[in-house]
Design a protein that fits this description.
alpha+beta; 7-stranded antiparallel sheet
């Protein structure tokens, strides 16, 4: 609606005309505002649409628009935390910290054993003993200088200055006048030198001595799988058990195996190359040899074995997958097992070193066992004293 619709004609008298003009200037703006408000309310009520608050101003939709400045509302409720962002790049490496304080000096270690060689000179005819090992003396009756090897006074000309040697074979090569006995050897660069019994006539180094009537070296003994020595004072080729450091340090190409029965030792030699005997036995894996059954039997004066299987070498046991079956039947760390059946699932006889069979009344650790199940020379359960050497 426009202002022209509110014009008042000039046909009235002048006084009335002026009065009307004054009223027009006052009433017309008020009347326009009322009409606009009513029109807007009517349009908004018909559409059922409330006015939209935009930044404190209300916007009405309809025939026209009127903007009315509203009062700012209060702050809304904080929204939820957004999703975790991606991992940022790694920062720069920091500067190196200051060095720590120097630690205290450690305790002094124990005194090591007396090394090989000659320690001092005696002018007397004293006794040669283990305590005098390495001493020199001047023997007046023979007018010569002698040294003590722990047992006997020997001429200095037979002393071997190359000790410690790498093996007894090395002693035999470099010391022409050397005799069988105890010598210092050092086969490994990472292991200390140690004393062993040497058969210098053929260059053999002692590794183990096993009393077959005892259970020290049965098949399941930890001495086969560890690197611990046993009874180091028993170094002679006698009937006292021992395990020397040569078991895990001495490389070889030949093994010499001996069994003593009735004070007689019988020997056989096996050609086999290894870094040590430990490397062949400790993991429990079977490693075959080709010695032949007849040669194994020469270790003892009388033997008995079953006719079949004949599984020989290192860690010779049943081939059964049943562990209980394996531990029940014949097992040997070095030697041969036999069976009456044409397989190796249940061997009932053995000959060798580091032995075990649950039916052995003597619980042998070295010797010959044969059960009553078709052995070729009758039942056997005979212990032997075993010797293992290498070169």
């Amino acid at each position: 609606m426009t202002s022209e619709q509110f014009d008042i004609t000039v046909w009235v008298k002048p006084s009335i005309y002026h009065f009307v003009q004054v009223m027009k200037s006052v009433i017309q703006p008020l009347l326009l505002a009322v009409i606009a408000t009513v029109a807007i309310w009517a349009v908004g009520n018909e559409a059922h649409t409330p006015p939209e608050n935009k930044g404190g101003q209300y916007h009405f939709s309809g025939c026209g628009s009127v903007t009315v400045e509203g009062v700012p509302g209060s702050d809304g409720v904080s929204g939820k935390n957004g999703e975790k962002g991606e991992k940022g790049e790694r920062g720069f490496k920091g500067t190196r910290g200051d060095s720590g304080m120097k630690g205290d000096v450690g305790q002094t270690g124990p005194q090591g054993p007396v090394g090989p060689g000659i320690s001092r000179f005696l002018m007397t005819d004293g006794q040669c003993s283990k305590e005098a090992n390495g001493l020199l003396r001047y023997f007046q009756r023979l007018a010569r200088i002698e040294y003590c090897d722990g047992r006997n006074w020997l001429p200095l000309s037979s002393y071997c200055p190359q000790q410690p040697a790498s093996s007894c074979k090395d002693v035999a090569k470099n010391c022409r006048s050397a005799k069988n006995g105890k010598y210092w050897i050092k086969p490994s660069l990472t292991e200390p030198a140690f004393q062993v019994y040497c058969d210098v006539s053929e260059g053999w180094t002692l590794i183990m001595k096993i009393d077959g009537s005892k259970q020290t070296f049965t098949y399941d003994s930890n001495l086969w799988s560890n690197k611990n020595s046993f009874q180091l004072n028993n170094l002679d080729l006698d009937s006292k058990e021992a395990k020397l450091a040569s078991y895990w340090t001495l490389p070889f190409t030949e093994l010499r195996l001996g069994m003593k029965v009735n004070n007689a030792i019988r020997w056989i030699t096996i050609n086999y190359t290894a870094t040590s005997l430990y490397s062949l036995i400790a993991d429990g894996q079977h490693r075959p040899t080709s010695v032949d059954k007849s040669k194994w039997r020469t270790l003892m004066p009388v033997t008995s074995l079953q006719r079949n299987c004949n599984r020989e070498g290192f860690n010779s046991t049943s081939t059964s997958s049943d562990s209980g079956n394996r531990t029940f039947h014949s097992r040997v760390r070095i030697g041969i097992v036999g069976n009456q059946e044409n397989n190796c699932h249940s061997p009932d006889s053995l000959l060798g070193f580091g032995t075990s069979d649950s039916r052995s009344s003597n619980n042998l650790s070295a010797g010959n066992f044969a059960s009553n199940i078709l052995p070729d020379n009758g039942e056997r359960d005979i212990a032997a004293f075993g010797y293992i050497m290498a070169r």
